[in-house]
Amino acid sequence: MTDHDTTQTTVDEILSVDEQSDEDKSNVFEKPWLLEIDNVPDANRIVGRDDKIKSLAKNLRKMRTDDVPDNIVMWGETGTGKTLVARHVCERLEATTEGTDAPIVTAYVNPDPISTYTSTFRKLAEQVNAKANDPVDVPSLGLSAEHYRDKKLWPIVEREFPGGLVVIIDEIDKHGEINEILYTLSRTKSKDDVNFPVVTIGISNDIDFKGDIDSRSQSTLQPKHWTFTPYEEDQLVSILENRRDAFYEGVLEDNVIPTVAELAADEHGDARRAVRLLRNAGEVADEEDYEIVTTDHVSKADELVEVELFMEMVKGTPLSGKLLLFALTRLDRNNPEKEWFRTSEIHRVYETVAKDVRVEPKGYNRALELLNKHVTTGVLESKKKEGGDEGKFRSYSLQGEVESTRRGLINSTPELQELME
After folding, report:
1. pTM of the entire structure?
2. Is the pLDDT of residue 142 over 90?
3. Apex 404 CA angle, 319 and 333, nearest 5
């Protein structure tokens, strides 16, 4: 047998699924899906947000009584339950109205850096048609936003979901055309001549973005603004205890959940981070072939969580944007006494990194634009200095820990992986 045959056999064995084999079974996880970030738990697993759940349910109930529901904008730090509340109530709304004379449909979109006005309405049309009994085809390209609405979205809602549509738009601060989208959704009756309610729920982690919703959109949307406060440590403990059955009984060491909750409480009470950290601790234990998850596994997982979170923040970032960040991490590592670095310094190192990975570096102005985009997503902080012998210049500082940022960039960028090898 040749080396190629041996390798092929090994790969086939890895990819095969043998229902009789216990080799792939986890030592620690019984119901791992309970720890997935996108999992919407049952009501009895949701902690500390009863008031918001009830308020949203009462508001959306107006769609069923010919009353006028409010549009909502939810503000608060990451992991404070905004998306969870919106998706949970909307799931129950769909289930409650299914089979009635006026079923209601909901759609959820989470924009990425390249989302557009047109692509947002395409995504809404895709989701509504996916839930319809008699869907129409929704092409991924070639149609205008108006065509997606007039031919692919509104007629399907009117025919199959006459109770109306609820649109959840997560991370509205990251969408470059959010004002136009909010304006259009708030004027569906007059602009698109629809005869059913359309309710918008916007979600943002950036409370400062509130001022960036223009007056025209504010005037027509007239949203109620809800603020979500961070979870306290005891609430995080309850949230994690409600997911303990993701693991086999007796697998979690006594101090694991309190340790995870304490770490997450230090990071502005982020429940997502807490759930992710608990899951990662189990995965570390699994990889090391342990049958008990310990606080040592939590410590190891804590480093991995930082890298994962950073990779999510730069998802969709163009290569040049990642190389600029990598240049900043190089400056940071080589100058431990400094915290802030000027645009010109970053651009100079970036040019070297770009050449190392065999791509044409962007000019100074484009680099400045990409760095400022990282400021809006919270990866960087910036400040401008005026006056003095050096004139005006802008400086940038990493918000996260430099090694986690560096590892996240390498893990998410094939060109950097090849360079570091």
Report:
1. 0.73
2. no
3. 85
